[in-house]
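Case 305 in the screening queue. Each case pairs one protein sequence with one candidate compound; here the compound is aspartic acid. For every case the pipeline is the same: read the inputs, emit a complex structure as tokens, and attach any notable structural observations.

Predict complex for case 305.
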Amino acid sequence: MPQRFRHMLGIEPLSAEQIAFLLDQSKSFQDIQRHPLKKLATLRGKTVALAFFEPSTRTRISFATAAARLGADTMNLQAEVSSLRKGESLLDTVRTLDAMKPDCIVMRHSASGAPEFVAGQLEIPVINAGDGTHEHPTQALLDALTIRDRKSALMGLNVTILGDILHSRVARSNLHLLGKFGCRFTLCGPAMWLPRELECLGYPVRRVARVEEALEAADVIIVLRVQQERLHEPALPLEEYILLYQLTPKRLGLARPDALVLHPGPMIRGLEIAGRAHGPAVPAHRNTFGRFRGRRRCCTLRTGA
Ligand code: ASP
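Case 305 output:
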């Protein structure tokens, strides 16, 4: 068994062996999802605090469901209606949660490094559910499990990451994880969203301007959402982004026939990926890009995350 760790703050410090161990462990839990009776007693008597200081749908529900299915109780902090709105500090808020004796805290925050900071202050394990532009380790583990299930191994795949890479914690965690298994990366997107620093991580990374070139020979394509809430570069015309970087069926035809496309969600159809938003409300599209405005619909500058 590989060396155990107390917190799950990021993929970067983990070894390939530790990651493979986690993926192997998850297999039996995956099978249980298919059973009519999904409840286990693995965490019976334990309490998991869910502290989400940023919006979340999939991650929050996944953790709540996982806790329930493993027999744990959950404590939910709703940042929008908590005392944070009254000016309470992050530390005081998490100390209040801690006073109720949870056994673990799952935390999402807009500030990179916030979970690590909290881990240094509390005695209980902290799981990072996404911190700023830094890491989203459980998303990368889930992506790796999906890739391994579909491709049977992680070793040596050609992985193309498309879109807003600069602001993406998903991209960073996936680079660290898949990079430890010898994958090769092609990064594609507007030049200002392709950080050079990612070429210095020690993994084979190339930056490509044309999406057509980036898709050729790709085994796995990770499409990212434009992180509008974290943008602080010059405005980018929406039409230009769609024209140059949107993943369309025609472009997808350039990838290997068995290429796997992953998107961490929320997916903005009609922007990073071709298609239209369906369902009773279009707002998912409209709201998210409400800051694209004017005839050319540019996204405005925003400072801070
Ligand atoms: N859900 C992912 C995250 O929280 C991706 C996204 O929001 O675009 O980072």
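Case 305 observations:
- Residues 219 and 257 are 9 Å apart (CA to CA).
- The pocket of aspartic acid is lined by residues 130, 136, 169-170, 225, 264-265 (CB under 6 Å).
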